[in-house]
């Protein structure tokens, strides 16, 4: 890593303005599993409304970071906040603000899509009179109308991914966390998913992971590179004409 690339990484990872509460803030966050350090003193701010891409090979700590944010894991050290709320102390409030799509999203295979979404709405604490409207909103938003009465087990991979995204959006969360959202999709479905993610930016903050450079490049406003649990750098995509060279300079 050169001095100038370190400078650039520090500049692009600069804290957000003091007046603005970041959507996500990690300060010295570590996660250890026994002797394995999955996340090593991660410090990072993610701004409201941006699409932020986490890039890194398998095992670099991307999923661990997302699971910490979703409250499925507790950090071993450091402080992690979502909209200023502590993920450990204020975990319930944090969960209300987050929609999480894990890499293989559980869809309750025996349920029909509409039933599944209504079930998830109730699980997220939506009052009964609001459930039908919330389901209709996400069915419309994700173009699931054609499959709403189908059992989730009968869905194609593309529709499955959209149904997983719909359940994550059912409570209209500020922040969406998508673990490898284009994994296993065919080229057309990848393009659709990319457009969908871009259309969510602004109203939602999106944190997505991928190990495919071109995916992150085409979708994200900023991108971070992780390796062995460490953050190697952060770049603004618009300032990065050659993501591949930057990535290679870091890893
Ligand atoms: N429950 C666990 N117990 C022990 N080690 C774990 C556990 N979960 C993850 N790890 C280890 O932590 C490290 C980071 O894994 P993580 O899944 O966060 O990486 P990743 O970048 O998301 O990879 P992938 O793309 O394969 O999901 C790896 O070395 C992994 O083996």
UniProtKB/TrEMBL annotation:
Domain ABC transporter span(s) in chain numbering: 24-251
Keyword Nucleotide-binding on entry: yes
Cited PANTHER family: ABC TRANSPORTER, ATP-BINDING PROTEIN
Chain ranges passing through the membrane: none
Organism the protein comes from: Bradyrhizobium australiense
One Pfam family here: ABC_tran
GO molecular function, one term: ATP hydrolysis activity
Alphabetized UniProt keyword annotations: ATP-binding, Nucleotide-binding, Transport
Protein name: ABC transporter ATP-binding protein
Similarity annotation: Belongs to the ABC transporter superfamily.
Cited function: Involved in beta-(1-->2)glucan export. Transmembrane domains (TMD) form a pore in the inner membrane and the ATP-binding domain (NBD) is responsible for energy generation.
């Amino acid at each position: 890593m050169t001095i100038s690339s370190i400078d650039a990484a520090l500049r692009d990872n600069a804290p957000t303005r003091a007046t603005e509460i970041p959507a996500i803030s990690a300060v010295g966050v570590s996660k250890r599993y026994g002797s394995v350090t999955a996340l090593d003193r991660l410090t990072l701010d993610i701004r409201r409304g941006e699409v932020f891409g986490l890039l890194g090979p398998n095992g670099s700590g991307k999923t661990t970071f997302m699971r910490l944010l979703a409250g499925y894991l507790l950090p071993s050290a450091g402080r992690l906040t979502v909209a200023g709320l502590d993920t450990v102390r204020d975990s319930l409030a944090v969960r209300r603000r987050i929609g999480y799509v894990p890499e293989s999203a559980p869809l309750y295979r025996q349920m029909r899509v509409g039933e599944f979404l209504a079930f998830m709405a109730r699980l997220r604490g939506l009052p009964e009179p609001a459930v039908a409207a919330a389901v209709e909103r996400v069915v419309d938003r994700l173009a699931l109308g054609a499959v709403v009465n189908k059992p989730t087990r009968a869905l194609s991979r593309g529709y499955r991914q959209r149904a997983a995204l719909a359940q994550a959006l059912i409570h209209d969360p500020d922040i969406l966390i998508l673990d490898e959202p284009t994994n296993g999709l065919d080229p057309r479905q990848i393009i659709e998913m990319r457009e969908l993610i871009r259309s969510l930016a602004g109203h939602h903050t999106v944190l997505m992971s991928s190990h495919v450079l071109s995916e992150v490049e085409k979708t994200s406003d900023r991108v971070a590179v992780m390796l062995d649990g460490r953050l190697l750098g952060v770049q603004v995509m618009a300032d990065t004409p050659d993501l591949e060279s930057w990535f290679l300079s870091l890893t």
